[in-house]
Amino acid sequence: MFSSYHHFPPDGARAVLQDAVDAGESIGIFEVTRRAPSAIGLMFPWALMAFVYTLWIRPFRWSRLFWTYVIPVVPFVVLFDGVVSCLRTYRPQELREIIGKLRGIEYEWEVGEHFGAGGIVPITYMIGHPREGL
Q: Residue 134 pLDDT > 60, yes or no?
């Protein structure tokens, strides 16, 4: 799952993992958003990108120009969604707590944050798979 796990409340998030465990399937969850001032701050320039790229979106619609430039609803929605996503993103410790409530076959879990080449905003990740030999 990429940048979507934060949409689940804790019980739903646990249910997603429990379903993978019950099926004996591996699962990987990756979140670019993060509950941190730096990530929230990056949502502002991200929302401004709507002003830059709207003219190149096809098919062309006058309504898109109206809702972006005249009454900037589109940039506001992008900003609001980004900030709320940051605030809802699980921290690694919270992911470990969710894992601790799972039952069933033994799994190996790796939870952490990976800083990419730019090193500005880490990607939070959680990877789980059945233990070898089960």
A: no
